Amino acid sequence: MSHVKASGKVAQQSQRMRHGKRFGLKKTDGQKVRVGQIIIRQKGSCYKSGAGVGTGRDYTLFALKEGVVKFGKRFGKTLVKIT
Description:
The protein is mainly β. It has one domain: CATH 2.40.50.100. 10% of the residues lie in helices and 37% in strands.
């Protein structure tokens, strides 16, 4: 058995081939959304859900009704609601 970790071309390729988790805003302020569309994918609850917005297990914010996305501030957090 080898006592040194492989550092050849195969090991380097597997380290470079990783992709991001696609977090961030999917809909911006003033955009129309339909029921079930994802508004924000986030890690933790940076954005809070307001009226017409649901929160998933992984803190994803999604639309519960059709309308227009609006952002606002409340208690030091950014609030997302649908009007």
